Amino acid sequence: GSPPPAAILQAIAAMGFDVDHVYGITEVSGTPVSCVQQPGWATAPAADRARLQARQGVRAAALEQLRVLHPDTLQPVPADGVTAGEIMVRGNTVMKGYLKNPGATAKAFAGGWFHTGDIAVLHPDGYVQITDRSKDVIISGGENISSVEVEDVLHRHPAVLLAAVVAQPDERWGEVPCAFVELKPEAVGSVSAEELIDFCRTHLARFKCPRQVVFDLLPRTATGKIQKFRLREIAGSREAITRLAQVQAEPAG
């Protein structure tokens, strides 16, 4: 699933729950990364504490190596919390390969590292934070937009229950963000797309804000993961987007 937005972690903490945040992937046994809470975090303001806990964390002892590397040069990115690279791992807990798919195996292990496909930054304290899946990065006018960053802002809006952002084809910019939003039951019908877009503009650069917001139930897998591939199919179809917009505009019967 996607990284948990800081706003959701803050809301969970406000209800009195302690959250253990771990990161794992199917190709690596166990949980290779854990957000180990440091002593000073407990006294930090709630928003700051949630922001720290939203990071994926540090390597578990069972995993031999984990790095954030440039995907082409395989050189480490600086630990500045800004420069993005790809999380790569290797060790005895990493799979040997994909069954009967040597091509995919060779690509995944290029350069001797397993390429997770997760784009991340490395903070000065050594904590890793995912900014997006490589396939979910939106490239608009030559600028990279993190769908996770936009989703995190949308989750701060009090009416939003769930949000997912994908690329929508655009003749001028190549791609632009398109947001799919599931509202809280009590907020259905009371929030407009324009309101959410304006909300994003108060927290993000204008080019990162969604050009379109679609209100609907988000498709999920049996394990609760949002099926972004289905949302990308809808966002890529003008007919589907138009149809959904018309349905939303119809008065409730």
Helix and strand sequence = HEEHEEEHEEEEHEEHEHH
Unreliable segments of 5+ consecutive residues: none
Structural class: alpha+beta
Strand content: 25-35%
The CATH class of the largest domain is: Mainly Beta
Note the main sheet: 4 strands, antiparallel
Overview of the structural elements:
It is a single chain. It is built from 7 helices and 12 strands. It starts with 5 loop residues before the first helix and ends with a helix. Helix 1 packs across helix 2 (46-53). The model has no long low-confidence stretch (mean pLDDT 91). By secondary structure, it is α+β, with helices and mostly antiparallel strands. The strands form 4 sheets. It has a 4-stranded antiparallel β-sheet. It has a 3-stranded antiparallel β-sheet with strand order 1-2-3, with no helix packed on it. A 3-stranded mixed β-sheet has the order 10-11-12, sandwiched between helices. It folds into 2 domains: 6-133, Roll (Luciferase, domain 3); 137-235, ANL, C-terminal domain (GMP Synthetase, Chain A, domain 3, 2-Layer Sandwich). Helices cover 24% and strands 25% of the residues.
Defining key terms:
3-stranded antiparallel sheet, alpha+beta, globular, 4-stranded antiparallel sheet, 7 helices, Luciferase, domain 3, 2 domains, GMP Synthetase, Chain A, domain 3, 253 residues
Task: Give a quick summary of the entry.
The protein is α+β, with helices and mostly antiparallel strands and 253 residues long. Helix content is 24%, strand content 25%.
